[in-house]
Structures are given as C-alpha cells and as structure tokens.
Design brief:
This protein is α/β, with parallel strands linked by helices and 307 residues long. It is built from 13 helices and 8 strands. It has an 8-stranded parallel barrel with strand order 1-2-3-4-5-6-7-8, surrounded by 9 helices. Bound molecules: glyceraldehyde-3-phosphate (G3H), 1,3-dihydroxyacetonephosphate and zinc ion. Zinc ion binds next to loops.
C-alpha cells in the first residue's frame, strides 16, 4: 500500500498500548528484511533514514526504494527522517516523499528548540506530514556521573508539557536514560521509568524512545566467534522495553541491533567459507539475521498482528 503518515500509525499504538519499531535502513537488504518480516507478522512499521544513511546511500535513493517496496506489502509503513538536523533537511525529506520527519534541535536551549521545531511543524503539517521532536538529550550514562549532572540531560516533565503545547508536534522523543550505540552506560543500562510515568501522565501524544537496541547476546556471541573486537557491549533489557510501552512509549528506534545482525552474518560467511566471494551469499546471511532481529522486535513491542 502507499506510505502511511506516521501519526496515523502511532496514535493507534499509544491508544491501544503497543509500540511500533522504527528501524534504520541504509540499503536494499535491510529494507527487505524489515518489510518482508513486517508483512509476515502483520505488523505496522517505521523505516527511518539517518544523516549517515543519507550520506551513504542518498536520500532520494532510499526514499524511492522504501516507497516502491512498501507499495508491494499490505501492512502500514511510514518513511521517517531520523534526527533531522535543521529546517533545510526537513524540507528535503518532505520533497523526497517522507511521511514523518524528526527535527532534532534538542542540543539548543529550550526557547530555540521550540522556535526551530515550530518552523518545521508548520512546513510539515502544511503537506500533511507528522513531526517528531526531542526534548532533553541522550547521553552515555556513566555510573560515576553525579545525579544532578545526569538529570540535566533528561527530559523535564513540566517542560515537556510546554514544549508540546508550544510546538504542536505529533510525537515527542524523550531522554530517559538510554543512549545510542552498543555501549549503553556502565553496568546495567537503565530506563528512568518514574520520569517516563510523570511525562506520560501529562503528555498525551505518542512518546518516542531512542537508543533502544538490546544488543542481543546471540549476536554478540556470533561477532566474537568470528574474531570481532567489540569489548563488552550492553543494550537495553527487554523487560525495560516491555515496561515502557504501557507507560506511553509508542515508537522505539532500533539501529545498532540491525548493524550487529548484518555484520555478524557477513562475518560468519567470510570467516567460515574463505573461498566464497559471491556477495549475495555473504550479505544474504546477514539478511537472514536481520529478519530474526526484526521478528524479535515486532513481537517484543506487541506490534505483530496489529495490521
Ligand atoms: O541515531 C543514530 C543512528 O544510529 C544513526 O546513525 O547517522 O551513523 O547512520 P548514523
Ligand atoms: P540504537 O543505537 O540503540 O539502535 O538507537 C537508534 C536510534 O535511536 C536512532 O534514532
Ligand atoms: Zn536516535
């Protein structure tokens, strides 16, 4: 079916108490794994394009790829701009046919964040596209950081109310302890559920969780078994993700787990079959693992069976 506007997917998710994964894509195989698995599990899904993806593969290429492939599945798919840097980037995404955009001005002071976000909301809403913005900042949370300094980066619940009212955004990304990448804090990565409750009590639009990868043990094992030097990675525990959803999280961003899956599969073929040089065999194994990760996320978040 044609791409669906993000708000349509997420309002239903928050209302009915499940979350929709937003997977980062960079190429054909990641997009195939996401769409084939979402179709098989009857799940709505977001596919998002980061700045890095845009530079690697091209915004128009990825937009055309996702739109064309999504037109041949029967589940709702939104194409989303991940961490849009500025107004110009948002306009480029709108022009390229994205059905959801994020403006990330979270590193600016509150008033400036409001101002920049509002400008993007006006443009996106004029063409029927929904908008995500972020308040607070994702950080690598370290055990030895003093609470005051740590709190300074997390989303303030009363600021969140003012931010949503003043910007008219459609969904809000909150900073509640997660961070991007495969090394989420020292020791047990955490989600500040108490803070999330306070935000969700006062903000009724769908909430978005960034930095949500779980860094599954089975993928870490495969990486290490093929000689990858990745130290001691750590992700968000499944039980924390499960608990955050009835608390208002309706969109959950996943990139790192997909990177691990694709790379683990490729490494396996390259190291175990040194004679192999057909890239389809090498990347194909990565795609198999990608599908497994996508399946696990759709089931974990309760999105399976909702389309
Ligand atoms: O939000 C961060 C994502 O993991 C995307 O990262 O710009 O390197 O693709 P990237
Ligand atoms: P992860 O690095 O945990 O996969 O988070 C991705 C993300 O938040 C993209 O916006
Ligand atoms: Zn993010």
């Amino acid at each position: 079916m044609p791409l669906v506007v993000g708000k349509q997917i997420l309002d239903k998710a928050r209302r009915e108490g499940y979350a929709v994964p937003s997977f980062n894509t960079n190429n054909l195989e990641i997009t195939q794994a996401i769409l084939e698995t979402a179709e098989a599990l009857r799940a709505p899904v977001f596919i998002q394009v980061s700045d890095g993806a845009r530079k690697y593969a091209g915004m128009e290429n990825l937009s055309n790829l996702v739109r064309d492939m999504a037109s041949r599945v029967s589940v709702p798919v939104a194409l989303h701009l991940d961490h849009g840097a500025d107004y110009a980037m948002v306009l480029q995404a709108l022009r390229a046919g994205f059905t959801s955009v994020m403006i990330d001005a979270s590193h600016h002071p509150f008033e400036e964040n409001v101002h920049k976000t509002k400008k993007c909301v006006e443009a996106a809403h004029a063409v029927g596209v929904s908008v995500e913005a972020e308040l607070g900042r994702l950080q690598g949370i370290e055990d030895n950081i003093v609470v005051d300094a740590k709190d300074a980066f997390l989303t303030d619940p009363s600021e969140a109310v003012r931010f949503v009212e003043q910007t008219s955004i459609d969904y809000l990304a909150v900073a509640i302890g997660t961070s991007h990448g495969a090394y989420k804090g020292k020791g047990r990565p955490y989600i500040d559920h108490a803070r999330l409750e306070q935000i969700a009590r006062r903000v009724s639009i769908p909430l978005v969780l960034h930095g949500s990868s779980g860094v599954p043990a089975w993928l870490v094992e495969k990486m290490k078994a093929t000689g990858a030097d990745i130290g001691d990675p750590a992700g968000i525990h499944d039980e924390d993700v499960r608990r955050a959803i009835p608390q208002g999280i309706a969109k959950i961003n996943i990139d790192t787990d997909l990177r691990l899956a694709l790379t683990a599969g490729m490494r396996e073929v390259v190291t175990r079959s040194p004679k192999e040089f057909d890239p389809r065999k090498i990347i194909g194994k990565g795609r198999d693992y990608l599908k497994q990760v996508v399946r696990e996320k759709l089931e974990l978040m309760g999105a399976a069976g909702r389309a």
